[in-house]
Specification:
heterotrimer; A mainly alpha (about 60); B mainly alpha (about 220); C mainly alpha (about 240); A: about 60 residues; mainly alpha; rod-shaped; B: about 220 residues; 9 helices
């Protein structure tokens, strides 16, 4: 099968590749989304812990 | 106990009579809009009429769900009622029954008028009343679960529709198709049987879910 | 009776540690399966006599549809476990399953439309499967919206949990209702998607993709659960250690 035949998919290229393209977006989105969620969470928690530590040291003085 | 609770509920509803009229007016208005929007052609109306009336009934039932738990939730009565031993099942059933009596039943009574507006034949009208009679209690029942879950939320109303409409779909399908079948002169006992089964199933299971839902919200 | 193992199983910390070691395997194997599946599906397998190359969409549509239903059951069961036995980790599982399941449902609907258009010349048809799948999407969205709406996360868990449990009973009912309604209206004949005896090369591709999608989605769900654990257990010292500083 040649490259152009592969892309054409027997005339149905638009449908097949749209499907796979959207799937790629969705799966990629899930992956990225979940990683970003972790990053944001860690940043947030680090900030929170720092603030708590500060309050603790201040209250001890 | 049930009778006492029912009396209380009905009295409560009667005090806010205005709230009861609204869903009814909504029901009538919505149905009336369709001939204006789609076509006054009798034939076509007759075909889609059953569906339209059913959808409107669904929406009207949903709009009126607020009254079920909201006031009692906000002043703490709900919590008290459930805390009492004696069956929480009874409390919930009383509310559901009174909800149906004040919203579902009026819909059933007024439906022949709307059926005539939508050019549904007389067999269809009987079917419509029957299916609404069996179906509207189910709407009240399932709605009580959704209402229980969202009663404490600020944006509860919109969320309620999202939660409850998918669950209403089987009743809608069977109810509307029963009326269409009747209008075409066909037998619709199968649909009625299914709806009856759904009603009985809901009566036994839903109060459990409803109590669970309220308990969650009260937390 | 030694319940220790049961308590360990429901410990968020234990889950975090175990999933940490499992996750790379999940990602790795799913990647391999995806590549193999894509190769097999897009290149190596034969095309259908009637449907031509559009059948290649099946390698996306069937796995995602299957996953959408599987994760709903997972969500409902997890919610039930969390509700009945009050196990927080179970609620975390339910909450993590929802977005993944919803995404799969959306994908199933979209790929289904893209498959339907060239073959049946219509983007949508109201048959039992499509309609039930659409309702499933609404149920997922309802679950997520309801959970979000509560300020107290644990109350939200239980509320959304009730919804999930009620919904899982309803999905088969909806499917049955629509199917019945369709047989009444002879029009929607396209509903019977026959899975003809498949050529082995197609079957291999399909199986590869099914496993790939399930594994990938499980990995995403597990990752989400890890985030949930960190977030909910943030006051615990072990979390502070993990986060560092």
């Amino acid at each position: 099968m040649s490259m152009s035949e592969f892309l054409d998919m027997g005339g149905y290229g638009l449908y097949v590749w749209s499907s796979y393209g959207i799937a790629l977006l969705v799966f990629g989105g899930l992956f990225v989304g979940v990683k970003l969620q972790r990053k944001r969470l860690i940043k947030q928690l680090r900030r929170l812990y720092r603030q708590q530590a500060k309050i603790n040291t201040e209250s001890q003085q | 106990m049930l009778i006492k609770l029912l009396q209380r509920e009905l009295l409560r509803h009667w005090r806010c009579r205005q709230d009861l009229i609204n869903p009814l007016i909504f029901f009538i208005l919505t149905v009336s809009l369709f001939p204006l929007a789609v076509t006054p052609d009798g034939q076509l109306l007759g075909q889609i009429g059953s569906g339209i009336i059913w959808v409107a009934a669904l929406l009207a039932a949903m709009l009126s769900l607020e009254s079920m738990y909201r006031d009692d939730y906000h002043d703490g009565t709900l919590e008290l009622l459930l805390l009492q031993s004696g069956s929480s099942y009874t409390v919930v059933m009383a509310k559901i029954i009174s909800h149906w009596l004040t919203t579902g039943l009026p819909l059933v009574i007024i439906s022949p008028l709307l059926a005539v507006m939508m050019q549904i034949s007389s067999e269809g009208i009987t079917a419509l009343m029957l299916t609404l009679l069996i179906g509207t209690p189910v709407l009240s029942l399932i709605g009580s679960v959704g209402m229980g879950l969202t009663v404490g939320l600020r944006q509860g109303g919109v969320l309620l529709s999202l939660l409850v409409l998918p669950l209403y779909i089987p009743i809608l399908i069977f109810g509307a198709s029963a009326v269409s079948a009747a209008a075409m002169g066909m037998d619709y006992s199968g649909q009625l049987a299914f709806m009856g089964a759904f009603l009985l199933g809901s009566i036994s299971l839903v109060p459990l879910a409803s109590v669970a839902a309220i308990r969650v919200s009260i937390r | 009776m030694n319940w220790q193992w049961f308590h360990r199983l429901s410990s968020p910390k234990w889950f975090y540690q175990i999933s940490g070691s499992l996750l790379p395997w999940f990602w790795g194997i799913s990647l391999i399966l995806i590549v193999a599946g894509l190769y097999q599906g897009l290149y190596n397998s034969v095309i259908d006599y009637q449907q031509g190359s559009t059948v290649r969409i099946m390698y996306l549509h069937v796995p995602t549809a299957f996953a959408s239903m599987m994760f709903y059951v997972v969500m409902a069961v997890a919610a039930a476990i969390g509700y009945i036995w009050r196990i927080k980790l179970a609620h975390m599982a339910a909450v993590s399953a929802a977005p993944v399941g919803a995404a799969m449902t959306l994908l199933a609907l979209v790929t289904g439309s893209l498959w339907g258009k060239p073959i049946w010349n219509t983007w949508w048809v109201w048959d039992a499967r499509l309609t039930s799948e659409l309702i499933l999407l609404f149920l997922y969205l309802g679950f997520m919206s309801l959970h979000q709406a509560f300020e107290d996360r644990e109350v939200g868990d239980r509320a959304a949990g009730v919804l999930a449990m009620v919904g899982v009973i309803n999905v088969p009912i909806i499917h049955f209702s629509v199917e019945w309604w369709n047989t009444l209206h002879q029009g929607a004949t396209i509903s019977k998607f026959e899975k003809p005896s498949m050529d082995p090369s197609m079957l291999i591709a399909l199986l590869l993709m099914i496993f790939a999608v399930i594994l990938f989605c499980s990995a995403v769900m597990m990752y989400r659960m890890r985030n949930e654990v960190l977030s909910r257990e943030q006051s615990k010292s072990w979390v502070k250690e993990v986060i560092g500083q």
